[in-house]
Predict the 3D structure of the following.
Amino acid sequence: MRKRNNVHVIDAIRPDVPVLVYAHGFGCSQHMWRHITPAFEGKCHQVLFDYVGCGQSDLAAFDPVKYASLKGYVQDVLDVCDTLGIERGVNFVGHSVSASVGLLASIERPTLFDRLILVGPSPCYLNHAPDYFGGFERKDLDGLLDLMDQNFMGWSSYLAPIVAGAPQADSLGGELSESFCSTDPTMARIFAQATFFADSREDLPRVTRPSLILQHGKDALAPLSVGEYMHKKLRGSTLEVLDVTGHCAHMSHPHLVTAAMQRYLSLT
């Protein structure tokens, strides 16, 4: 599993030190956490990995049926922890769709997790009027996937600056576009479908572990109403709105994310 998911551990795992497991978002890899991990070196054991089909994972292990739903990515998280012999105490840090993956994993195995830190989460990207505003109409997401099918490079160039947000659309957008383009198009298409059409709203009340919701102030992919909705549905949750434009605060404003994590984990 270490090779399959390109698992890396910062500091050896011991029972007396908190464990942080980082899970990247769609089209990304563990490399996106590089601005966060230095703040926790010597204080926590940190586990980084790539979902199968992403980053430096073993692409030969990709199963299009398994990874067509979030369950496949949930299993990756559980497999990584099992491979490392981690049985409890995981502080899960998930960006974007990985927030939902972490929530679902905590439902499946609540004793494994301590707390969940959710960066830019969304349980459902689709609007369901009048009770839920996820940010997109069905035709918008269908169009995005059609563009992906027709012009993968063009799709990457279009989506990356939206995800990055102003004013870092050029610098961060370039890195994101490169990451999107480096992913196998077929695997990326399957992950995109699983991401954008997932609906985990009914699962939120089943989560028993406490969570920190780090909401971006201006996020084209997950509007403020989504963070407020999750805070209302997740028992024991804390909502913190970051003064950030875009969907990747851990990359664009890592100092804000590390500070929020340190406060939440009492590591200041």
User: Anything to note?
Assistant: The mean pLDDT is 94.
